[in-house]
Structure formats: structure tokens, C-alpha cells
Design a protein that fits this description.
The complex is a heterodimer of chains A (177) and B (296).
Chain A: H1 6-14, H2 30-34, H3 36-41, H4 47-56, H5 59-68, H6 71-74, H7 81-85, H8 92-105, H9 112-123, H10 131-139, H11 150-160, H12 162-167
Chain B: E1 5-8, H1 11-15, H2 18-31, E2 35-36, H3 49-52, H4 54-70, E3 75-77, H5 80-95, H6 97-107, E4 120-122, H7 123-131, H8 133-138, E5 148-152, H9 155-158, H10 161-164, H11 175-182, E6 186-188, H12 199-202, H13 206-222, E7 227-230, H14 233-240, E8 260-262, H15 263-270, H16 275-278, H17 288-293
Parallel strand pairs in B: 1-2, 1-3, 3-4, 5-6, 5-7, 7-8
The chains are: A mainly alpha (177), B alpha/beta (296).
The complex binds iron/sulfur cluster (SF4) (2 copies).
Residues 34-37, 47, 76-82, 92-93 of chain A line the site of one iron/sulfur cluster.
């Protein structure tokens, strides 16, 4: 009998945009059928199972699987096709986003994500200013970009508590290709 | 609210693809779309920071919204991802008072408050609904007759449809199609039109992203397209920059040098603007053959 995590169950049900609808999942599998990643990988990437395990609160089982193969969660390309096609209007990508937040907190993330968050914290933007590009901007006649309020971004990120997560040592991404 | 928008080009366009911003500004100036800049930070990335911590993502988006609110202006986004981030964060806070209070508590630290009075709109919607096709057609001096275009509106332009409410039929989008047609070019249909560019999964597994990119190009080529047209810098980057990576999975003899244009580049070209001043030369795939077809 897998261990049930009632927090996951409750959190998913509480998801702001229609999370309570998760209980209407009848495992039709349309989400799998329309998913471009599932179409390429078959059972390795399976949003239907992700929804089911979340609805049941099987966090431990799910996260053990993610640890073995991060792709079962991080393979989602966030195209939101499944959301559009799910007959029960389940916000599947919101659930996946919630799980990704939990996975990051548990250190189960490809390095790209915490790294990109640190880039935003330190530069105010995910893609920082580049002197060569600024020159090109001037040549194109659009001038330098407006000032970036880095201090405000830092203060906000300090206040949300995300730095605790970003400071944590990440586990290396395991072979996903 | 006045009709001047606060322009939100996003960090990818601003700091990597400035020629796309230049083309958008040329088109806005020509058509009389008012815009000004503001001290925005990262939108932040709806497929980056949101996946790390939803609350932080929401607070930073709220800061951007508050900047525009302060000036009593709406935001016009040049990027699918930025538009989606700002609209969804706004939606989340409007439907979750606890989240809104938490965010405002955080924003106090930087002397700001999110009220929820600013609208965020994707520029394609501005061109289609506010400027209108007639005015765009009237500005065309060099019709792109004969150019065959495969469309890629991109996932985050319209999905999730119940929140973004961009167009009526989310799997059969028409605004980009009509804008392309107004330049004189012809749109070709291909089954992969709604397929994702693969941007997000590239961060986890480039191989999967490449297979998606390949399907996209193969479909567009099969349909006889000369180029792809997009309305998002992120999709542009996948198609134009990452295309080189398809070498490793290409069938024998298949070359991937397929050009991509941002919709305002196409419109600016049809307006008779010079490809050199627009900065088409900064594309990895410059589309010489495609442009030659329309005498450019
Ligand atoms: S499409 Fe919706 S109802 Fe069907 S299996 Fe997927 S989540 Fe469940
Ligand atoms: S959002 Fe993720 S799970 Fe849904 S269809 Fe796209 S890749 Fe698949």
C-alpha cells in the first residue's frame, strides 16, 4: 500500500484555478493522446498517471519515480494542449507546476531551473543585458533598454523566501535523454 | 486609460533579439500605435521561475503590473510568455484574495501595491482588433504576393484559453493568419501548426525538443511553405537558433536552414521597409530564397 500524503492531496485540491476538478478525472487518457512528449516517449511520459497519483496523494511513490527518472515530471514542455483537451477541464499544467515547485524544494530539479532563478535575482532578468547587444540596439535605432530595477527584484525575492530553496545544493540531473 | 501602451518586449527580445523589437516599433510607428517604455523587470518567465516557486513568480509579475498601474496604462506584450505570465498572475490574484494579500505584503518592501487595474494585451490582438486589417492593408506598398507562409502562433499566445481569452477558437487561431494575409502572402496549412516549439523541454532534454522542432519544419516544408511566421521571440529563437542542432537527427541529404520571421518583420517588409535596416541579416537563417521570391 503506497503511503498517502494528505498535504499533496489537499494542496492539489486547493489549487486556485479549478484544482477541485481533479476528482473528476476518469482516466480517459486524452491528455496522453494529445501530449507531444507522450507521443514521442509513450509510457515514459504520462500526464494521466501524474494526475492520478496527485489526486490520490501518492507523493512518495511519485517522487521516488521522479528521482529515478526526472523526465516523468520535467519532460512536460508546458504546451498546455492537455488542459485544452481534457474533457473534465482539469488544470493539468497547474498540477504539474505545483509538483515542479515541490520537486525543486526537494532538490529534484534539472540545474537549469534554480540557475535561471538565480540569474533573475542577480540581474533582474532571466536574460541579462549584453554590451554587444546594446550596441546593436543603438545601430538599429531603438536605443538602450530602460533601467532594470535589480534592487527591487532582489528585495522581493528575499521576502518570498525563495533564497532558501536556491541556496540548497541541487541533485544532479540524471540521464534523461 | 489612454491608448498609449507600456511596451513589454521581454528580456529575450530586449537583450538577444533587438531586431525583432526594432521591426515592431517600425510597424507601430507607421500604424499609429502609441507606446512608451517602463522600468519593468523579468515578466518573470512562466516556464522558468514559475516552476521554481509560484509565489515568487506571482510577486514579481505583480510588481510589473503595479508599475503600469501607477501610470494608469495598459501593457502591450511582444512575447507570448510575458503576456501569459502577466495575465495569469493577474488572474490568480483576482481569484485568490489570500495570495493577493501575501503579494502586497511583499511589495510593501519596495513601496509598491498591486491593485488589479491594468490590462495586459498581446500585440497581435492590438494589431488585429484595434488597428484593424484595413489600415494594415492600406499601409502595404510592397505586397508579398507568392510568399508561402506556415504559421506558428505558439502555445502561450492563447492557452490556457479560459484565462487568456485571446481568440474564440483556440485550436484554430485566425488573427496571425489574417495579419499574414494582409501582407499579400499566402498561408499554407500543415498539421503541426499547433505543435509546441519545444522551448521548455529543451531545458530538460534537448533530444525531445529537437524531435519536435524537426516535426515542425518537416510539416511546413511538406506543405510547401517558404518560411515560418511567429509572434513570440521565444519561439523565434527555437526555430532560428536551435535549428542548427537538427543536424544530428536529420535524414540523409536533409538540410535544415529554414527561415523564420516575426510577424512585424513581415508587415514591415510589406510596408516597403528595407530588410537591411530592419536587421534581417541578424537572423541565423536569413531566408534569402524566400525574400527573393518577393523581390527583396
Ligand atoms: S484528459 Fe483529463 S480526465 Fe482524461 S485522463 Fe487526462 S486528466 Fe483525466
Ligand atoms: S502541457 Fe505538458 S503534459 Fe500537457 S500536453 Fe503539453 S507537454 Fe504534455
Amino acid at each position: 500500500m503506497p503511503k498517502i500524503d494528505f498535504n499533496v492531496k489537499r494542496d492539489v485540491l486547493d489549487l486556485m484555478i479549478g484544482g477541485e476538478k481533479i476528482s473528476y478525472c476518469y482516466q480517459c487518457g486524452i491528455c496522453n493522446d494529445v501530449c507531444p512528449v507522450s507521443q514521442r516517449w509513450g509510457s515514459r511520459y504520462n500526464p494521466r498517471d501524474t494526475v492520478l497519483f496527485s489526486a490520490l496523494g501518492y507523493k512518495e511513490t511519485l517522487f521516488l519515480a521522479i528521482k529515478r527518472d526526472p523526465f516523468i515530471l520535467w519532460g512536460c514542455t508546458a504546451c498546455e494542449t492537455c488542459d485544452e483537451k481534457c474533457p473534465s477541464e482539469i488544470p493539468i499544467t497547474e498540477i504539474i507546476c505545483y509538483l515542479k515547485n515541490a520537486a525543486v524544494a526537494a532538490g529534484l530539479t534539472p540545474e537549469f531551473y534554480p540557475e535561471s532563478a538565480r540569474t533573475i535575482r542577480d540581474n533582474g532578468m532571466a536574460i541579462p543585458v549584453q554590451p554587444a547587444i546594446n550596441k546593436r540596439r543603438e545601430k538599429l535605432g531603438i536605443g538602450l533598454p530602460p533601467n532594470i530595477p535589480v534592487d527591487e527584484v532582489k528585495a522581493i525575492m528575499e521576502a518570498t523566501g525563495i533564497n532558501k530553496v536556491l541556496g540548497k545544493k541541487e541533485e544532479k540531473e540524471e540521464g534523461t535523454a | 486609460m489612454t491608448t498609449e501602451y507600456k511596451l513589454f518586449p521581454g528580456c529575450l527580445m530586449t537583450n538577444r533579439l533587438p531586431f525583432l523589437e526594432a521591426s515592431a516599433k517600425v510597424v507601430f510607428d507607421e500604424l499609429g500605435v502609441g507606446y512608451s517604455s517602463a522600468e519593468f523587470a523579468c515578466c518573470p518567465n512562466p516556464v522558468g521561475l514559475k516552476f521554481v516557486d509560484n509565489k515568487t513568480w506571482c510577486a514579481l509579475a505583480a510588481r510589473n503590473l503595479a508599475v503600469a498601474e501607477n501610470e494608469n496604462k495598459n501593457i502591450m506584450s511582444l512575447c507570448n510568455g510575458c503576456a501569459q505570465s502577466l495575465i495569469i498572475a493577474d488572474h490568480e490574484m483576482k481569484h485568490d484574495p489570500i495570495l493577493k494579500d501575501e503579494v502586497n505584503e511583499i511589495l510593501k518592501k519596495v513601496g509598491k501595491e498591486y491593485k488589479g487595474t491594468t490590462n495586459v494585451i498581446h500585440f497581435v490582438k492590438v494589431l488585429y482588433e484595434e488597428v484593424g486589417l484595413e489600415k494594415i492593408k492600406a499601409s502595404v506598398k510592397h505586397p508579398l504576393t507568392g510568399l508561402k507562409v506556415a504559421l506558428h502562433p505558439g502555445c502561450h499566445y492563447a492557452r490556457p484559453s479560459h484565462i487568456l481569452k485571446v481568440e474564440e477558437d483556440v485550436m484554430n487561431l485566425k488573427y496571425l493568419r489574417k495579419l499574414v494575409e494582409s501582407t499579400g502572402a499566402t498561408v499554407v496549412d500543415y498539421p503541426e501548426e499547433n505543435l509546441c516549439c519545444g522551448n521548455v523541454v529543451r531545458n530538460t532534454d534537448p533530444y525531445t525538443a529537437n524531435t519536435m522542432l524537426k516535426s515542425k519544419f518537416d510539416g511546413a516544408k511538406r506543405a510547401g511553405a517558404d518560411c515560418l511566421v511567429v509572434n513570440c521571440p521565444s519561439c523565434f529563437q527555437q526555430f532560428d537558433t536551435e535549428q542548427a542542432k537538427l543536424k544530428s537527427i536529420a535524414e540523409e541529404g536533409e538540410v535544415y536552414k529554414f527561415p523564420t520571421f516575426y510577424i512585424t518583420e513581415l508587415i514591415a517588409l510589406a510596408m516597403g521597409k528595407d530588410p537591411a535596416t530592419l536587421g534581417i541579416k541578424f537572423h541565423r537563417n536569413k531566408g534569402k530564397e524566400a525574400l527573393a521570391k518577393v523581390n527583396l
